[in-house]
Amino acid sequence: MNRRHIYIVLTYIAMQLSVFIGMPLLYAIGTKLLHLPPQEAKIQATGYWLMISFFVGLAIVLFLLRKDEKHNKIDRAAPLPLGWSLVWASIGIFMAFFAQIIAVGIEQMIGVKPGSENTQEILQLIDLFPAIVLISSIIGPILEEIVFRKVIFGTLYNRLPFGMAAVISSVIFAFAHMEPIHLILYTAMGFVFAFLYVQTKRIIVPIIAHVMMNTLVVVAQRFIPEDLEKNIQSFIHFVQWMGGFFS
Length: 247
Hints:
Blueprint: H1 3-17, H2 19-33, H3 38-64, H4 73-76, H5 82-109, H6 117-128, H7 133-157, H8 162-176, H9 183-200, H10 204-223, H11 226-246
């Protein structure tokens, strides 16, 4: 891994850990200087620090990439034409959702309950601080694809076969979400995004698929009528059952 890529990984780690310093600082400002009620100060501190840390993190990462010298063999190869890349980005959204359905089915077979606490916490935070949707739907996916696909997967793929490099980087991606119980789910998604990157030779393709997937989850959770959502869930369960029946 070259120096710039090491700095990108360190920036991402520092961004994640900064919450332990930034949030208490903003909370103290809210309660002691602005005299906000504790609960409101906590919400404001969480929301504003996430916005600050992610935007600063993205700015630093993009700055480090401004003169990227194409250290991995994916970027050195000829990229797929833009039109076909956009087609793959669209297909990738469905691939990611299908991978989730399969992963959830496997997790249920081994006793893991469906539903992500991480996702629910983000959705609750969006309710309280709507601007966070920019982090969950756009900034977060961009950073994750650069760090876990372009840097980590790209470095591994220089030395390892695709399958091994994709699995290792996807497992790291899964543990980074701090939900080890859903290791299979996050690994499956990471594998799909790695495939899209290799297939098109463009990091923008898994970025688009990841952004659209996260955005659709937020929209589905917040704007789809309850009856329609139940029908969608019933369809998903039916697909999972059919998959088990024909396996």
